[in-house]
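note to self: the first set is below, dont mix up w the second
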Amino acid sequence: MLRTVGSFFGGTLRDLSNSADQWRYDRATNSPAKDRALAAAVKEITPSFRQCRGCSDWMCQDQCWNEEIGQCLRCSPSVAEEISRAQASAQRDQIWDKAREKDWTSGLDVDTRAKVSCPGCGLKAEGGKFCQSCGTALALKVRCGGCGSESNKAGAMFCSDCGNRF
């Protein structure tokens, strides 16, 4: 009701309405019991964290702290972990290098234009020279009766070499 009256008349009544809303919000989120519970939780967890002298960030002692150096693992990484990461990275690079050296295209016909779908049945072609569903040749060669050229595409009406009509 105070909010409604405040919106009509403005001024002091509106300010009073806003203050009442703010008090209700604060009361719902900040209670002495919650403050005590938060303080107890902070007190309990504080010994598990350390402040790094290198970056000034707070880090958990169990997972993120280099005890030997006395800094966080970002500022002073574990030597064994760094060696392991470097070895894994080098191994990954060597795998890629070896894969690049191998000829992965020796058995592929790269001279014939690949078809995405079969010209006979229209299903997706998985590669090869013939459709696995209907047996239609995936690289159809249309032979020109005039010049004998086989470079024409299926469905062409004229020869691309001599212009003869099919």
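second set (the one i keep forgetting abt)
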Amino acid sequence: MSADTRQPAILSRRDGAVLHLTLNRPQARNAMNMAMVLALREALATAERDGGVRVLVLRGAAGHFCAGADIAEMATARMKLASNPDAIAELNAQFGELCADFGRTGLAVVAVVEGTAMGGGLGLACAADVAIGGESAVFRLPETSLGVVPAQIAPYLVERLGYSQARRLAVTGGRIDARRALEIGLVHELHPDAALDDALARTLHDILHNAPQAVAATKALMAKARLHSPASLIQEAAEVFSRAALSAEGTEGQTAFLQKRKANWMPQ
């Protein structure tokens, strides 16, 4: 029996409104196989249905974030091509769905990145709302050096870094240390690895002071704003604002402000 069959692909820990998800294949620097992809997607779907989860934290076990796709699993898919010509495409699409799920969720998503963050791991970090880097973090985009394409993560790289930096990484197979990652906006904060827990606690404190439905609506509107001109969104944005202002959450927030007290969603 392999180590993968003896241990869960991800570890899950609930702390109030925060769900911590740890990628758990330390023997492979948390490289993603299908079991991990499906477990992450299911954990997110369950959290969205829960109603009490407001933040997801993604982290890797044993000092590494994620070494990208499991090459051995891709080799297995290649062996199935005779019976299923779409085997590799189907495998890749599953990872794309994972990134899309985390990229479009209304929950806040925080990635804590230390050690290796390669390929798909780099892409997953880019799909998060907030990326906190440890000084040990090393980012790589090795797909083109392997003769393949960073197909599913390319949109998230462009979104996080802009077209110019994403293109540079793609054609160089870029290796980026933690300091450079901060400079180009790949991570939003950088801290010594020993200080990552404190940095995460501060970020979670800030997120939990914001109204959850307002966060979700803002994320959705911002996602649409990437693809439309500001003028074309005026009416829709006004309707989004009005719904929020008149909602129970909006009423509570404005009342709490006037009464100089904390809103009921804030940590007490």
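remember for set 2: The mean pLDDT is 95.
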